């Protein structure tokens, strides 16, 4: 029993924050990191290679254009008839002899006697206009030679024998040529990178991902109760250390679990010792069932025969779970026996228990208890309820009377007080007593079985034999919880006042 079980209410949804599920696997993140770094490095290397190749090609192109300009300047004086038409024919013949891919881009211009002759097959604006718009000054090389580059052109110039020859090549063509070559190299590098990615992926899967998945499955198995499970050791130093740590943890958990089971077994035997065989009571048809939860808890119930032929029936539940709860219940039993030896009045028994119980248990430990005294000769019961679940007295007529609590739990407040209540009893009446484990049964949807369902199950089987009625109530509990285990021990007591009973010796007065 827990403190929350004193006032049963609908369980509140958990507000515990859950960790977000990982989006990407370690394998994906490693491959992504390696490949992104590889792409960045390849891109930077290709940019540097492109610039280096472009600079080298420009130097080569400048030298070739200058050599061509010198050749043309040397050939011009040798023309048979030196005029504009013969110069024009020479330029066209030079372009005709060049490759078809180079001729449309190649441009030649000759200045002679104040006249400018330019190759006609060159595309675009006249070369003289492009050179006039250029802000890039020629780079003199001596002997009237110069090379330079403008925004759009690479130019070689030779000034010799009264001729000024300009030979130009568009920069766009050079850049495209270098770009194509760079892309070809990039494609080769990409293929190599893909092969490297496959190798890296293979290595990661064998050396890291599979071992981690195996370690993860083992840890999950340990978490699911397979204590003592071991993983194989690995040659990788880090994984070997992790595997040894997991194996050591698993062994320690298994050893601790064995020790806990031994202690729980002892606690279970102690709890069973608290539940002596139920006596045969003349005039009563009784059925008692105790359904233990997965843990030992603090349920306690007992019947005390009195010297005058009367009986005391008590049922109790202490707070907490496990071995401490079983120990507290054992102390409660001892104190209860001492109190019954001094008084038979349920109210006085609770008062005596309250004064002694708080002195021997840990702070914060309490107990609920319902004590019922049966007076056969007077055909009545008297009871006192210290914070326990209300007993259910059902008349043969079908009327239901609840033996409700009107005070605190035992041990909660030193000055606590409980009233003594009395109800008449007739043949055929039944008394049902239970612990809160019967109402605190949850289904898969975390829905509480509750006191109302328990009362309905009791009323629905009120005409059955107590043994059958209790079994039907247990069936209702099982149907509600499904595959879930009981969260607390369940104690059910049902007594039918089956016959008139008058004790042979009724001389003993109530104490």
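-> sequence recovered:
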């Amino acid at each position: 029993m827990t403190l929350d079980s004193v006032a049963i209410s609908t369980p509140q949804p958990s507000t515990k924050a859950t960790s977000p599920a990982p989006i990407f696997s370690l394998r994906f993140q490693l491959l992504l990191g390696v490949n992104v770094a590889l792409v960045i490095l390849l891109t930077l290397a290709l940019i540097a290679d492109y610039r280096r190749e472009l600079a080298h090609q420009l130097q080569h192109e400048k030298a070739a254009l200058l050599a061509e300009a010198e050749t043309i300047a040397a050939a011009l004086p040798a023309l048979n008839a030196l005029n504009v038409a013969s110069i024009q024919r020479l330029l066209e013949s030079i372009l005709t002899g060049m490759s078809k891919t180079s001729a449309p881009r190649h441009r030649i211009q000759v200045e002679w006697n104040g006249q400018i002759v330019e190759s006609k097959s060159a595309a675009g604006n006249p070369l003289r206009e492009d050179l006039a718009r250029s802000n890039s000054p020629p780079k003199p090389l001596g002997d009237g030679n110069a090379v330079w580059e403008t925004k759009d052109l690479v130019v070689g110039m030779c000034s010799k024998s009264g001729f000024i020859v300009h030979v130009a090549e568009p920069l766009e063509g050079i850049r495209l040529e270098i770009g194509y070559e760079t892309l070809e190299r990039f494609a080769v590098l990409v293929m190599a990178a893909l092969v490297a990615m496959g190798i890296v992926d293979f290595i990661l899967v064998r050396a890291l991902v599979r071992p981690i998945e195996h370690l993860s499955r083992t840890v999950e198995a340990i978490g699911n109760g397979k204590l003592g499970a071991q993983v194989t050791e690995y040659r990788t130093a880090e994984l070997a250390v992790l595997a040894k740590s997991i194996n050591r943890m698993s062994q320690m958990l298994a050893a601790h679990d064995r020790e806990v089971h031994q202690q729980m077994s002892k606690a279970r035997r102690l709890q069973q010792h608290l539940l002596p065989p139920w006596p045969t009571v003349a005039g009563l048809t009784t059925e008692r069932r105790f359904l233990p939860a997965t843990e030992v808890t603090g349920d306690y119930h007992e019947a005390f025969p009195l010297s005058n032929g009367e009986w005391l029936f008590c049922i109790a539940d202490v707070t907490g779970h496990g071995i401490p709860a079983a120990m507290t219940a054992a102390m409660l039993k001892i104190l209860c026996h001492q109190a019954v030896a001094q008084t038979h009045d349920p109210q006085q028994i609770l008062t005596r228990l309250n004064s002694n119980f708080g002195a021997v248990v840990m702070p914060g430990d309490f107990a609920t208890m319902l004590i019922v005294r049966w007076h056969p000769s007077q055909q009545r019961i008297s009871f006192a309820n210290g914070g326990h679940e209300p007993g259910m007295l059902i008349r043969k007529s079908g009327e239901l009377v609840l033996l409700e609590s009107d005070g605190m739990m035992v041990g909660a407040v030193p000055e606590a007080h409980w009233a003594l209540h009395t109800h008449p009893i007739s043949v055929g009446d039944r008394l049902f007593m239970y612990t809160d484990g019967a109402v605190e049964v949850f289904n898969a949807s975390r829905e509480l079985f509750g006191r109302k369902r328990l009362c309905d199950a009791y009323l629905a089987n009120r005409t059955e034999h107590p043994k059958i009625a209790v079994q039907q109530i247990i069936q209702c509990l099982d149907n509600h919880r499904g595959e879930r285990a009981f969260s607390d021990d369940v104690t059910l007591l049902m007594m039918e006042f089956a016959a008139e009973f008058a004790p042979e010796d009724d001389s003993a007065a109530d104490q």
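The CA atoms of residues 176 and 182 lie 10 Å apart.
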